[in-house]
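Hey L., structure's done. Input below.
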Amino acid sequence: MTSIPIKPTRPVILCILDGWGSRDDAVDNAIILGNTPNFDKMTEICPVAYLDTSGLAVGLPEGQMGNSEVGHTNLGAGRIVIQDLPLIDAAIKDGSFSEIAGLKSTIASLKSTGGTCHLMGLMSTGGVHSHQDHMLALTRVLSKAGIPVAIHAFLD
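Output:
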């Protein structure tokens, strides 16, 4: 099959405004309260589309806010890309988290040397770059294997 390129009759612009949300409520809303004449004019004369940028719409758990990286990943892929947060959550839930080869070899090494596992990382419920549930799950796996654990938490 031969495809025939379709040329737009006029220029097309894809304008992604990171951090520029849409909400009707003016309370604490810099977009509505701000003086945005150019943006206002463009939205009056040009077609506009809004995308869901959080939760299941971008491969995150329901209610989890998105971020720039998540948004660009999904836009670039042209589909919903399941993010690390729900993938790790699922692995913890189904038990496959404790079967990760690198974790198993670390446990074996620490058992043979009698060492302590020092875990360093972000500890918060934010879910953007980390989640404390993942650190706690890792601690449980190590403790269950008899490995002493020291947590060096970075708080955000």
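The CA atoms of residues 24 and 32 lie 8 Å apart. The chain has a mean pLDDT of 92.

-- N.
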